[in-house]
What does this fold into?
Amino acid sequence: YLLCLFPIAELSADVPVNCVGELYRLVYHDKQPGIPFEIECTSIIDQHIDKARTIAVYDTTNAVLLVTHNAVSNLTIYAGDRIRAKGRTYIYDFNQIVALCESIEHTGRAAAPHPEYASAADIDSGRCDCRLVTIKGTLRDIFQDEIDANFRYLVLNCDGRLLYTSSPQIGIDEVPVGS
It folds into this structure.
């Protein structure tokens, strides 16, 4: 188990963040660049698109996306792999803050995470950010992302709400709309 030892007010450029919950807050809420991190976590999914790589990870405190370049590590990461990731928060495309990895190493193996059921309200609240979930709904539309052709958007009607979810372009062309 990991324990978050640094309240946000005490973070400095010299002391790395050591848990996913603090890293999540820095990236998605406080949006602070330049903060180092060194976390031990479990992988949810490892996705390669062009020369970039995004790894969804979690620990007991939260989940977060790590971004790196394929050149940083050619390590194959599977769901459930335990990893140590080092890097710092960084201003990336479109002025967004990301957790940019400078090194990744395999430290062990855990059970692969199982998706949990999420309602439309759970998705809207942000409680499911960076997590593996199952949602129930009717597929209303599929369209290609106008900025990144590697992604498609799925429009789902869930509990009377329309949810727009992005997905890498992997075999979703065969899914009939309305199913």
